[in-house]
Design brief:
NAD(P)/FAD-dependent oxidoreductase; FAD/NAD(P)-binding domain; alpha/beta; oxidoreductase; five-stranded parallel sheet; flavoprotein; FAD/NAD-binding_dom; NAD; 9 helices
Length: about 400
């Protein structure tokens, strides 16, 4: 029997850990149940931190962890999935193709930044979506120091006033002063079509965010979108032109394209609709998890967000349940009633909320310490020690806040 997991992000990593944990509990050997993880590199990209400086350091190796729990790593990119023949076609780094059959499949392919067809965005826009994107932005920012102080050199426009946009924008003033000199006066502007910053956060946390933006001198342009980009800067939908050499696009994400190959229903974000055990209805043997799945967290109408907090726990349930079907033991319905947000606000600290109603629990430096612990400890892979690694993936306890 073979369980194939596509993706080495938070959901894929925990799917592998959890499946191996159940296999170990059931006393089944790796020869009887092979668990294979397919990804271009055996590396976890710590995507929630890509708004920070030195993005090239924001990865964690997975190979030793996978070896310690007897998970086979298959290097390559899954290009096609045939759910009728239960076959995955993989493109290797060497340009060859190979096929991998499965008895159960976990789709943990994550998400990608949504880039609309805005004139000039592809040529002149940056992002912090993937590792290469963040590295390109960081290289560009460092290159500003060698350019003349004109044409909006010290101005950064961030398109998108959600989580990613706010964290990228509030980090930017200190980041630019480090590059351009402590006496530099960087100008950072958030542009968002909504009439309020952080539209998903609600009324409770918003004053904290607005206060942080004021302290940092971050401007906002609300009720307007980006109409076009060119070498001189960005033009907004209200006609305003902002001179800048740096536009960071942070306006929305969609499930990775591979989900479109699964013959099933998807939501507006491209996520596969799944049942409570994270199976894809009508597609035998296929589970979806993390940003690839739209899953109910509880019985009162809350659904998992496209975040590492939900991906880790969803991954643990998906991996456990895929293995459980093969091993003939009961599956576990996914549930995640606990929900917190911890939003980095740069030198203004952070914001920590609890619950779907986002009740503010911590602000400023106290919240910042929690954010730093989450970013540098909690979301990293477990140690490459078999017992500890397997224990970390109990679905009922992963991210139990």
């Amino acid at each position: 029997m073979r369980l194939v997991i596509i993706g080495a992000g938070f959901a894929g990593m925990y799917a592998a850990l959890s499946a191996a944990r159940l296999r170990d509990i059931q006393g089944v050997s790796p020869e009887e149940l092979e668990i294979a993880l397919v990804a271009p590199e055996p590396t976890l990209v710590v995507r929630p931190r890509l708004y920070e400086q030195k993005p090239e350091t924001l990865t964690a190796p997975l190979l030793d962890v996978l070896k310690s729990i007897d998970v086979v790593y298959v290097q390559g990119s899954a290009e096609t999935v045939d759910t009728k023949s239960r076959m995955v076609q993989i493109a290797t780094a060497k340009g060859t193709r190979k096929s991998l059959s499965y008895d159960r499949l976990v789709v943990a392919t994550g998400s990608r930044l949504f880039r609309p067809n805005i004139p000039g965005l592809a040529e002149h826009g940056f992002s912090v979506d993937q590792l290469d994107d963040a590295i390109a932005l960081d290289k560009h920012l460092h290159g500003l120091a060698n350019r003349p102080e004109k044409n909006g050199r010290d101005t950064v426009v961030v398109a998108g006033g959600g989580f990613t946009g706010i964290e990228a924008a509030t980090e930017m003033p200190a980041r630019l002063r480090k590059i351009l000199g402590k006496d530099a006066k960087p100008r950072v502007i958030i542009v968002d079509r909504n009439n309020a910053i952080a539209p998903d956060m609600g009324e409770g946390p918003r004053p904290v965010i607005e206060d942080a933006l004021r302290k940092l001198g971050v401007e906002t342009r609300l009720g307007a979108g980006v109409a076009s980009l060119d070498q001189s800067g960005v033009t907004l939908s209200n006609g305003e032109h902002i001179e800048t050499e740096t536009v960071v696009w942070a306006a929305g994400i969609r499930a990775a394209p591979l989900t479109q190959q699964i013959p099933a229903e998807r939501d507006n974000f491209g996520r596969l609709l799944v049942d409570r055990c994270l199976q894809v209805p009508g597609v035998p043997g296929v589970f979806a998890t993390g940003d690839a799945a739209r899953a109910a967290c509880d019985d009162v109408g809350n659904y998992a967000l496209m975040s590492c907090q939900h991906a880790t726990r969803m991954g643990a349930f998906a991996g456990n349940n895929a293995a459980a079907e093969l091993l003939g033991v009961p599956t576990k319905p996914y549930h995640q009633k606990a929900y917190v947000t911890c939003l980095d606000l740069g030198e203004a600290g952070a914001l920590f909320t609890r619950g779907w109603e986002r009740k503010v629990e911590m602000v400023g430096e106290v919240a910042k310490k929690s954010k730093q612990e989450i970013n540098t400890v909690w979301i990293y892979p477990p140690q490459a020690k078999r017992a500890a690694a397997l224990a970390s993936a109990d679905p009922e306890r992963v991210t139990d806040l």
